Structures are given as C-alpha cells and as structure tokens.
Amino acid sequence: ILVDWLVEVQENFELNHETLYLAVKLVDTYLSIRQVPKENLQLVGAASLFVACKFDERCPPLIEDFLYICDDAYRRTEFLEMERTLLKTIGFDIGMPLSYRFLRRYAKCARASMETLTMARYILEMSLMEYEFIKYRESKIASACLLLAMKMKNAGEWSSTLEYYTGYTDKDISGLVRELNAMIACPPKQLTTIRSKYSHSVFYEVAKVPALSEEALTS
After folding, report:
1. What is the per-residue pLDDT across 45-70, written as a single tens digit (0 to 9) for each?
2. What whole-number distance in Å separates Cα of residue 208 and Cα of residue 103?
3. What would be an example GO MF term here (predicted)?
C-alpha cells in the first residue's frame, strides 16, 4: 500500500523514476533496521521520498508539499525529525545501487526499443510492491525484467552482449523470470496505481499485455 501511494505521489509531482526507486530503497533499508508503528509508515515513506528528491531532482518539491500530500497528518517538526532519524539510521548512505539504473544500462546495451524498455519498467515497478523480490540483487532483478519484457514483446534472445554486461546467462535468471511472470498474471486487485499508469497510451499500454504461457516462457 505504501509503495502504491509513493507511485501516486511520484506521478503527481512528476518526479524522476530514479527518485521513486531510491525512495523505496530507503524505506526498505530503514524498515530492515527499525520497527515502525503502522500509523507512522506514511511518514517514513514521505520522508524517504523527500530525501530522494533532494538527491535526484533538479527542483525538488518543498517540505510544505509533502505535509500537504500527507493530509497534514504530521507537523513540520515531526517530518524534519523523521528525515534526520532516517539519514542517521542508514548512515547517510544514499548512493545505493538501483535496479532502474541497471535496467536502463542493460536496455541500451541490448538496443531495446522504447516499447520493450517500457514493458520492462512496468514489470520492475510492479515488483516494488512484492516483498519477496527484495532478496534479489538489483542487477539480477533488472536483468530478469528485461528478459521477460523481451519475451513478451518478441524482441529477440538473451545475447552474449547482454551476458557480458549483466553478468547473467538466461539460465541464471530463468527462475526469477518465472516468478515475475506469475506476479504479472495475478496483480494485487486493490493496488491499481502502477497498472493504471502503464495502461496509458504514453506508456504503450504495456500493462494490458497478458502474462506469458508456460510454453512461451520456456521457448
């Protein structure tokens, strides 16, 4: 639910995709270290996005904008204290590897079309909502999303060039590709922000592409 909300805020503020991925990474890192009461999860998410904006955006939104999107549920002092606590907890380490950056590089190496890259971006963004994918390396999940997108768009094979730049063979990521395909086949019904976003014509309506059959997966 928190990631779905962060995607909605990213859309409303017209933020970079890198900002969203960094914010989710900050949330995951913080929650892996500290226990947070349910009523403060939105505060953690908003503070993480605020920090990510400062790192990635040329013109980041103001703190007042973040207080507004939280329906004024938190005071300015609470928000700033959460930002300080977040940064201290993660050791001020914001330069984290992000799956989105890996995906862009790999797609460039593969000379993938914008439609194939958008398909991969949709799969990758959907994976942010599933906790089971947090255990995978950022480079591995980016590779698997690209391979699944290539299969869904009939955009060629996993080449030796991709093996070289990603460090993975298609066999290395086949299990993860299968998991991602199952995720696309059964998306969470209540959380629709990402699917709505990628159903738009500007994103080639990739969210409307059906998951692959078992036969197509193994071919």
Report:
1. 999 999 999 999 999 999 999 999 99
2. 21
3. cyclin-dependent protein serine/threonine kinase regulator activity
